[in-house]
Specification:
35% strand; 2 domains; Dna Ligase, domain 1; Ribosomal Protein S8, Chain: A, domain 1; globular; three-stranded antiparallel sheet
Length: 126
Amino acid sequence: MYIDLLIKIKNAQAVKKESIKVPYSGNDERILEILKRNNFIGNFEKKGRGIKKIMSIDLKYADGKGAISGIRLFSTPSRHLYAGYKEIRLVRGGYGISVISTPEGVMTGAEARKRKLGGELFFQMW
């Protein structure tokens, strides 16, 4: 679940770990690609095979602080929050990203708004 992934990354950055390992999930891999593209994490790679797949994630720091300052979760397993493309706004004046699951896959809020796609709001990160 992407919520566990995000909290593990945030907590690992708080104690200044260089890398972490998390169980593999296809949805988590797509989210990590977005975080890497937006410079919130370093590199990540998939290891193992079968049911023992894991992802090794290199964390990123800027001036001794973690690249992730904060996270706001919207959808949870018991509550799903949806938004149309017109309702997607900038995060922290453009300094953050929002991640949305659309019919065309998981993408940032800016990409979804550009393609005029709505969907389930996952989280905001800055």
